[in-house]
Amino acid sequence: MKTKAFLFDLDGTLIDTMPWHFKTWQLVVAEMGSPLHGDALMNELYGNGAELMNRLIPGRIFTEEEAKAIVDAKEERYRQLYGKQITVLEGTREFLDAALLQKIPMGIGTASNQANIDFALDQLQLRSYFTGIVGADDVQLSKPHPETWLKLADALQTPPEHCIVFEDAPKGVEAAQKAGMKAVAITGHYAANDFGEYDNILKIVPSLNALQVRDFLYL
């Protein structure tokens, strides 16, 4: 059965932004009095909205409106402080070019908001590869809920079982598993054993540079 679509996370999978997001979150949570720092903070940087902020700032309960204002301000701060330093990860363009030659539909499913998505895709000239994009503004529930991947599969007009997700975070792989999709785990900021509980993983690699598109054409 030929694979019909490739679904990519954005930050940490295609582009090198995670160090800069982390630095910005460090500033924000410290200013808000959170005890989280280092690995404890990194492990909580998934999801979005009130659910995210309630984890980052223990002891407080945020409304969705309050959380969105904080997250949006954080993202603007990230773009201003570090936006010019983001780069494409090793192997990204080569892998996307090879998939394009095979006429495989590709899309992005990310917890980033639309401003960050537009900023990155336009600055790094990646937009032309993708026919579908689902971001934080497009879903009610973020990863590990499967909504992001299911909406993206729908946008690409591809059944979930014909999709392969490329993801650098365990919660994103979990979302793919819940969506009925196979996944490739990219070990950028997590170790291989962080993905050990998921049975939908085809490969665990350090970057897209370690992959060949032809290996995924018939699965």
From TrEMBL:
It comes from Lacibacter sediminis. CDD domains: HAD_BPGM-like (cd07505). GO terms for molecular function: sugar-phosphatase activity. NCBIfam families: HAD-SF-IA-v3, PGMB-YQAB-SF. The keyword Ribonucleoprotein does not apply. Keywords: Hydrolase. This is Beta-phosphoglucomutase family hydrolase. The keyword Hydrolase applies. Belongs to the HAD-like hydrolase superfamily. CbbY/CbbZ/Gph/YieH family. PANTHER family: FRUCTOSE-1-PHOSPHATE PHOSPHATASE, GLYCEROL-1-PHOSPHATE PHOSPHOHYDROLASE 1-RELATED.
